[in-house]
Structure formats: C-alpha cells, structure tokens
Design goal:
Largest sheet: 2 strands, antiparallel
Helix content: 55-70%
Distance between the termini: 43 Å
Structural class: mainly alpha
Radius of gyration: 28 Å
Number of helices: 15
Order of helices and strands: HHHHHEEHHHHHHHHHH
Length: about 375
C-alpha cells in the first residue's frame, strides 16, 4: 500500500518556522557525515594527498605559481574506484592534448570572436565524439579547447598541458597505491545488497500479493522499494568488466582476478534474471490476485495446484541460494517438482492472475528464471 504523508496543522510563529526549515538540512547533513564509510574516508584522503602533491610538484618545477589544472586530474579521476585511475588518467591526457590542439589552431588562424568560439565549440564537440570513455563522449576535449581559446596568452597552452601531465602522473603512479580497495569485495557487497532487496521484494511483497484473497484490493509497493533495483545487475556487470580491465594495471590486487571471475558468474546470473523478474513484478502489481488464500495451503492441497504461490516461493529460494554462491541443485529440483504440479487454470478470461491468461504468463516467466538457474548450475556445479 502506498504510504500517505500528513501535515500538521499547528500554527507556529513564522520565525520558528524559518529557523526550523533552515536547520533541518544542516542536521541532516551532519547525520550523513556520521554515516561515512571507511572507503569514503580513504577516498577523500587519497584525493587530498594526490591533489596536494600535484600542486606542490607543479610549483617546484616552475610551471606555475597557482597550478589549478594540476589538481583537476586527482579531483575528477579519483572520484571512482582508484584502480581505474591509470586508464582514466590516460584518457584525460589524450582529451586535454586534443582540446589544446584545437584551440591552438583556432588562435593561430582565427580572431578571438563569437564566431570563432562557435567554431571551437563545434570542433571540440566533434572531437569528443571520437574520444569516448566507456561509450560516453569526453567532455574534457571541449572544456580544454574553450579554456585555452578564452585565454589567448602566449605559453598558456603549453602550461596547461604540463600541469595536466604532472597531475596525471601523480594520479596514475600514486593513486592506485594509496589504500587500494579490493574490487572483488566492493562488487560482492553490492551484489549482496541487490540480493537482499530482491529477496525482500519477492518474499514480503510479491508472495503476499499472490496469497491475497481475490476480492481484496491489490497490494501496491512503495515507489522506493523497486527504484533502481532492476538496473543494479546491469551496473554490476558493467563495473565487473571495468574491474577486470583495471586489475591489469594493479600491482596489489593482481591475485583477485580468480576471485573476481567466480563472482562474475553470480553477477551474470543476476543480470540475466533481472529482466524476467522485472516483468514478474509488473505482472503481479497489475493483477487483482489469484484465487488461493495461502501459498502453503495450496501446496498441501493436492497433487495439482492452480496457485502460483508455491512455485514462486520455490524459484525465489533457488535464486537466492544461487546468488549467495551456494549449490542451487536441490532448490532447483524442488522448484521443478512444484512446476509440474502447478497447472494454471485458463478457463476464465478474468482480469486477475487467478484463472486467466495472466496466470500462464506468470508460469512462463518463472520457468524462464528457472531455466537460467539450470544453465548456471550446469556450468558451475556439475558433478557436485
């Protein structure tokens, strides 16, 4: 059911209201600071050390007395997983060089004017499309081109390139060595968080929806329960590929490659089952509920059951066991046995998932998830 909010109608002095409204975000921000994780603290310290060292080296080398561009690689490159810093640093260096070249050519052949700026922006945008980072156009090309064109001072393009070289060198050489996080542990914790949310959704919400009496109104999930849930496996699969590429540059976590491969099998299982589970969630939420009042009672009622509750519970259990990394053979066999006992009735074209075509669709979705589980078991638990 959707949660409804209620506003208090108490009259309060305007000054108190203003103070209260202004103070709530501050207290909320302090509470968020208290919830900082160790990785976030280490990330901030890593960024501070690399940025400060980049500034110091650029000043000592006589490049500039205020080398702001030397600090930017640490700020933008180390905001993610530091093991990606070498790859992102090289991309940033190529983007800066390309943008500076575009601006230098424009300053040599064009006057500084609005029309010339339009030419520089157009050329920088086209160049950013050629130099993509994970499929996304590199905005650094356009930024460097505009900044250099906007400062038509002799020696500034070379100065900006040198400052970036110093900052990128510090990020590439030092960033991955400062409190390097284990990518396998990070991805495993994110997969566990997805598994827990999925288990909570299927067990506490969808099974209640299935076991509801047909004359009751459907249970509606709060929007926050599934917000971003079905995108998480895709993001995990993407970050898994990035982590594998990053480990080629790592000296401290090269041994994590084998553990990352084992974790990758579970991530790919979550990615393959996310789409049918999303469809399953949408079907259950759009339905008026099947005819069985209790999934457990339907399972014990006889050899054939027209309620999807027991079948859904068996598939849920098998999937959660597989995502935990355990052998799902026994739960899969139990789900197969229940699937043969589950016979959806299709004699009535009613709007609900009870007797009607939606019930057959629900069974097909569950069988698709079960087939993915079978493929995963056959590939990684054969002979056990």
């Amino acid at each position: 059911m959707r949660a409804r909010g209620f506003r208090l109608g108490c009259a309060m002095p305007s000054a108190v209201n203003v103070v209260g409204r202004r103070s709530r975000p501050a207290f909320g921000g302090l509470r968020r600071l208290r919830r900082l994780t160790v990785q976030e603290v280490r990330g901030g310290a890593r960024m501070m050390v690399c940025a400060t060292l980049s500034w110091y080296l650029a000043v000592e080398l006589g490049i500039n007395s205020a080398p702001v561009a030397a600090v930017l690689p640490a700020v933008f490159t180390l905001s993610g997983i530091p093991l990606w810093a070498p790859r992102l640093g090289l991309y940033r260096l190529g983007s800066v060089l390309l943008g500076v070249c575009i601006a230098a050519v424009a300053l040599r052949w064009l006057p500084v004017s609005t029309l010339s700026l339009a030419v520089v922006v157009s050329a920088g945008y086209l160049a950013s499309l050629l130099l993509r980072i994970d499929g996304v156009p590199s905005q650094q090309v356009l930024v460097s081109a505009v900044l250099v064109f906007g400062v038509p001072v002799s020696g500034y393009p070379e100065q900006r390139v040198l400052e970036n070289l110093v900052g990128i060198a510090v990020v590439v050489l030092l960033g991955p060595l400062l409190w390097p996080p284990d990518p396998c542990r990070l991805l495993s914790s994110r997969l566990d968080a997805y598994r827990d949310r999925l288990d909570d959704l299927l067990k506490d919400d969808l099974l209640k929806d299935v076991g509801r009496h047909p004359d009751r109104s459907p249970l509606r999930q709060e929007a926050g329960r599934t917000e971003g849930l079905w995108q998480q496996p895709h993001d995990l699969a993407r970050d898994l590929d990035r982590a594998r590429a990053a480990l080629r540059w790592s000296v401290t976590h090269r041994r994590s490659i084998s553990a990352l491969d084992k974790l990758g099998h579970r991530i790919h299982l979550a990615d393959r089952t996310a789409a049918p589970l999303h469809c399953l969630s949408a079907q259950l939420q759009a339905s008026d509920g099947p005819s069985a009042a209790d999934p457990a009672a339907s399972l014990a009622a006889g050899p054939a059951s027209d309620s999807p509750g027991p079948f859904l519970e068996a598939v849920r259990h098998a999937l959660i066991v597989a995502l935990e990394g355990a052998d799902p053979t026994e739960p899969i066999n139990r789900a197969r046995m229940i699937s043969r006992r589950y016979r959806p009735a299709c004699t009535s074209p009613g709007p609900g998932l009870g007797p009607g075509p939606h019930d057959s669709l629900l069974r097909d979705i569950l069988l698709l998830v079960l087939d993915n589980l079978d493929d995963y078991r056959a590939a990684h638990f054969t002979g056990r």
